[in-house]
Design brief:
single chain; mainly beta; five-stranded antiparallel sheet; four-stranded antiparallel sheet; 9% helix; 54% strand
Length: 138
C-alpha cells in the first residue's frame, strides 16, 4: 500500500481522505496488514478497511476548486470562478450542515460588504460543495 496519511483512497467505492494508517505484524500464516481509517469526502462518514501490506489500492483523482457564490436559486448555487471568469450553476446546495451554512452566510452577506466562497470537490463524476468561508468583497 502506497497511501499516506492525508492522501485519498477508495473504500467500498467511496472516495475518502485517509486520517489514520496502522500496520499489524505479520502472523504465522500471512503478511502484515495495513488498517486504514478514512473519511468519505462527500458524506463525512468514517470508513475503515484492512488490506495486506503489499496490496494495490485505488487512488481517486480529487480536485478542489474555490468559487464565489453569486446566487442561490431552486436549491442550486450560481458560482463564479474569478480567475477564469466562468460561471456554473450545476452544483446543488448540499443537504447537510455545509448547505445550511452556505444559505445562512449567503443571506448575511447580502447586507454586509462580504462575499461567500465555497470549495467544490470533484471526484468520480460528482461535484459537491464541501466547505465555505466569508471574504471581504472586492
Amino acid at each position: 500500500t502506497q497511501s499516506t496519511w492525508g492522501g485519498h483512497i477508495l473504500i467500498k467505492g467511496c472516495p475518502c481522505k485517509v486520517v489514520d494508517l496502522s500496520t499489524s505484524k505479520p502472523g504465522k500464516h500471512g503478511s502484515a496488514k495495513v488498517n486504514v481509517t478514512a473519511i468519505d469526502i462527500f458524506t463525512g462518514k468514517k470508513l475503515e478497511d484492512s488490506k495486506p501490506s503489499g496490496a494495490t489500492v485505488e487512488e481517486p483523482i480529487v480536485n478542489r476548486q474555490e468559487y464565489e457564490v453569486m446566487d442561490i436559486q431552486d436549491d442550486f448555487l450560481s458560482l463564479f470562478l474569478p480567475d477564469v471568469g466562468t460561471v456554473r450553476d450545476d452544483i446543488r446546495v448540499p443537504d447537510n450542515e455545509v448547505g445550511r451554512e452556505i444559505r445562512e452566510k449567503f443571506e448575511k452577506c447580502q447586507t454586509e460588504n462580504t462575499t461567500v466562497a465555497v470549495a467544490v470537490c470533484s471526484c468520480m463524476g460528482i461535484d459537491q460543495a464541501v466547505g465555505i468561508r466569508m471574504q471581504t468583497a472586492k
